[in-house]
Write a structure and sequence with these properties.
Strand content of chain B: over 45%
Distance between the termini of chain B: 75 Å
Largest interface: A-B, 25 and 26 residues
Largest sheet of chain A: 8 strands, antiparallel, barrel
Order of helices and strands of chain A: HHHHEEHEHEEEEEEEE
Structural class of chain A: alpha+beta
Shape of chain B: elongated
Number of strands of chain A: 11
Shape of chain A: elongated
Largest sheet of chain B: 9 strands, antiparallel
Radius of gyration of chain B: 26 Å
Number of helices of chain A: 6
Oligomer: heterodimer
Number of helices of chain B: 4
Chain lengths: 446, 316
């Protein structure tokens, strides 16, 4: 009797050595919670309101995605064949358990119909002696499938069986204990987490970076593109005539942006970005002076005062390209979502200006005549522009496309609002900018 | 291909980023004379010019314009000679004698015709009326024979004394010359039978004549400052006296960039006026001030239509 009992235990031990037991539903929340890495809390002071809103939006979107996947999981049909095999094994210990298994779960449908569990004991496993046996292989992750070595997710497929076919409560080794710990104590195979990537229906192309395997990555972006700098001029000191002159003589022209950005991706979906961003926007200043005069002077030796020998009255046309350049260090946070080779991320944050250069001509606030600012030919009677721009708030939405697992091309519409006027407070007109940009870029993932 | 497109984009940005500033100067043709022609053509009333055609005039004749100006032609066979010669042209032998009488009785006409009321030595006079008489025979210009004169009546309901006859050569910019002949206050029967009051002038030469009286008050320099770009090539500037028939032209001082007159009677209410044409645009500046000592009056002019300029000058 004692031998029989030991024999039965040994049989259980051998048969369940590589078995994977589906956990009861109540353990999933705890498992998922345990698998979720704890988010580091950042000081709220670093979060701009816009950034927070955008990140919140992204988080909600991510949550919604997970909910959808959870719904798919609940609708998942358990592989009956696996359970029946197990039951057969328990009921009939004499059955040939070492039969070669060809358990290929059809990942396309996630409803394996005739999969047989590889219940070969460890000591009888010729391929993985001394290692944890690989139980199931998803077609996307099948090492024997060389056609798709770089496929995303599906790092480790998970055997699934139904509790209805395996009466765990009746197993003395597992009864009264947490399923996972009990299985571990019994030297049972480790229960693998049910990762969402494993349940994806689409075959992942090989060109995507495996963010499941490497949830943290460093991304380097290089980008450039056109912009539209929307300027607003408002009169602060009720100097309407001057404001009208400014409005009448200046018009928007081309603008562009470029940048180099480093992004830290963490927790697979979250981004922390910084770098150098350059915005240059151009405005056209046109002024026609219908009352211009040119004098022809003649200097004679010994006479310091020249003689005016000719006067011409005419129209003077002046057209300058007023150029404003701003180099900023942005600090942004973002959320990224992926689907196949492409995906998008939403980013928001602030940027601090480190350089603001300007050159051109405007109507002088004192003389109401054209005057140049910036550069060596400065003739303006008073300082008009700040030396640096103020903080800016901005947001971008990036759509990317994987070229290779480590490179992407992206298109990124952006919006930036310079929070304070670029003009000094002493100037009678407030000159503000908001910049719409389109960034076309290249990302390298490390 | 991809790199090629990027290079195109970068090239485009470089080209756009290096666009050079543009500054060009387009000189205007001088427009002052054009302005004078415009004003003389548009401002005066057409009724101010009366032309009388006479054929073989053998008797004395009184020519009367619509406004009542009368020109007396007496002893007409010994009245005119060919201009520049001493060849007498008897009116009785001239089948096509034309006498043109142009009268100027207000300040707008003085300005429009390019006249003024400045005598010799820049002395300003007040006028009671100006008249121009031109005579031709068969298109040939005539002049008065020496020692002959024409009697001219200029109607005026409020005559005053101390006016003298002033005469002007063909060059309007030259100062008027005062003659030793006084202007008489007179009454004469008008064409409609009523008695007309006015001034009687005896003129000894054809062309412009005026009844004038010097302003003897102290004078001082008076200047008008216009914005840069307005000079003698494109601007006509005057000082028009308020309630008096006095129009003083201002001369441009290039060194000071001012329009000035050296002997402006002090203490009078005046209207500085500047008419300009730059390119195709007309400018007019008009204000009112009292003449002070060495005064420089800044005058802002505004762009306006030709019609507006004409109307404002008519209203002086």
């Amino acid at each position: 009797m004692e031998n029989q009992k030991h024999h039965l235990d040994e049989i259980f031990h051998q048969r369940l050595h590589n078995a994977e037991v589906p956990p009861p539903p109540f353990v999933w929340p705890a498992v998922e919670q345990a698998l979720q890495p704890k988010r580091r809390r950042r000081p709220i002071a670093f979060w701009w309101l816009t950034a927070a809103g955008t990140v919140l939006l992204g988080a909600v979107a991510l949550w919604a995605l997970n909910q959808q996947e959870a719904a798919q999981l609940s609708a998942f049909t358990p592989p009956v064949a696996i359970g029946s095999t197990t039951e057969q094994t328990l009921d009939n210990p004499a059955a040939p358990l070492e039969q070669p298994t060809t358990a290929n779960v059809q990942s396309e449908s996630f409803q394996p119909k005739s999969a047989t569990r590889p219940t070969t004991p460890r000591q009888h496993n010729p391929l993985n002696a001394g290692e944890r046996p690989v139980t199931y292989s998803n077609t996307n992750n099948n090492p024997s499938n060389p056609s798709n070595p770089s496929a995303e997710p599906v790092a480790e497929a998970t055997p699934v069986s139904t509790p209805a076919t395996l009466n765990i409560a009746n197993l003395p080794l597992l009864s009264g204990e947490n399923s996972i710990s009990a299985a571990q104590k019994a030297d049972m195979p480790t229960l693998k987490p049910f990762k969402s990537g494993a349940r994806r229906k689409k075959v992942q192309p090989r060109v995507c970076y495996d963010f499941n395997r490497h949830p943290s990555a460093l991304l380097i972006d290089v980008y450039a593109g056109p912009s539209i700098a929307q300027r607003s001029l408002t009169s602060r000191q009720d100097d309407e005539p001057y404001l009208k002159q400014r409005l009448a003589t200046e018009s928007r022209d081309l603008a562009f942006n470029a940048g180099l950005r480093a992004s830290l991706m963490f927790s697979r979906n979250f981004l922390l970005r910084t770098g150098l961003h350059y915005d240059q926007f151009t405005e056209v200043f046109e002024y026609i002076d219908p009352t211009s005069v040119t004098y022809t002077l003649k200097f004679t030796p010994g006479n310091p005062i020249p003689d005016t020998i000719g006067v011409q009255y005419g129209e003077n046309y002046l057209k300058t390209y007023n150029r404003y350049g701003a180099l900023d260090i942005p600090l942004m946070v973002g959320v990224e979502m992926r689907s196949g080779r492409s995906g998008f991320n939403i980013n928001a944050g602030i940027s601090a200006n480190v350089l603001f250069w300007k050159r051109g001509a405007i109507i002088d606030p004192q003389t109401h005549e054209p005057a140049r600012f910036g550069g060596k030919k400065e003739t303006i009677s008073e300082e008009v522009f700040r030396t640096r721009l103020s903080l800016s708030a901005g947001a971008t939405v990036q759509w990317y496309w994987h070229v290779t697992p480590h490179t992407r091309l992206f298109v990124e519409p952006s919006f930036r609002q310079v929070l304070r006027p670029v003009t000094l407070q002493s100037h009678s007109v407030d000159q503000r900018y908001s910049i719409l940009g389109l960034r076309l870029g290249y990302t390298m993932i490390f | 291909m991809f790199r090629l497109r990027w290079s195109y984009g970068l090239l485009l940005l470089a080209v756009l980023g290096c666009r050079k500033d543009v500054e060009t100067f387009q000189p205007y043709a001088p427009s002052a004379s054009e302005l004078g022609s415009l004003l003389s053509a548009r401002v005066p009333s057409t009724a101010a010019v009366s032309t009388f055609s006479l054929s073989n005039l053998a008797t004395d004749k009184v020519l009367e314009t619509a406004s009542g100006v009368q020109v007396y032609l007496v002893d007409t066979d010994q009245l005119f000679e060919k201009e520049g010669t001493n060849v007498v042209v008897p009116c009785s032998t001239c089948p096509d004698l034309k006498i043109e009488v142009t009268e100027v009785t207000d300040k707008s006409d003085i300005v429009a015709r390019g006249l003024h009321t400045v005598g010799d030595s820049n002395k300003v006079f007040e006028t009671a009326g100006m008249v121009r008489i031109k005579a031709t025979c068969g298109g040939q210009a005539l002049e008065l024979m020496s020692n002959r004169n024409l009697k001219v009546h200029i109607p005026n309901a409020n005559t005053t004394a101390d006016f003298w006859v002033f005469e002007q050569n063909t060059e309007l910019s030259k100062p008027w010359l005062i003659t030793p002949r006084p202007v008489y206050e007179a009454e004469w029967p008008a064409a409609n039978g009523s008695i007309q009051e006015g001034y009687e002038l005896l003129i000894t030469q054809l062309g412009w004549s005026a009844a004038g009286k010097f302003i003897e008050d102290p004078s001082s320099s008076f200047c008008v400052q216009l914005p840069t770009g307005f000079g003698e090539q494109n601007t006509l500037s005057y000082v028009v006296f308020k309630d008096r028939q006095i129009v003083v032209p201002l001369e441009f001082d290039l060194g000071k960039n001012l329009f000035c007159f050296p002997k402006m009677p002090v203490g009078y209410l005046v209207q500085p006026v500047a008419i300009s044409k730059l390119g195709e645009s007309f400018y007019l500046g008009k204000a009112q001030t009292e003449v002070g000592t060495n005064a420089v009056f800044p005058l802002n002019n505004q762009i306006m239509t030709e019609e507006a300029v004409v109307n404002i000058i008519k209203g002086l």
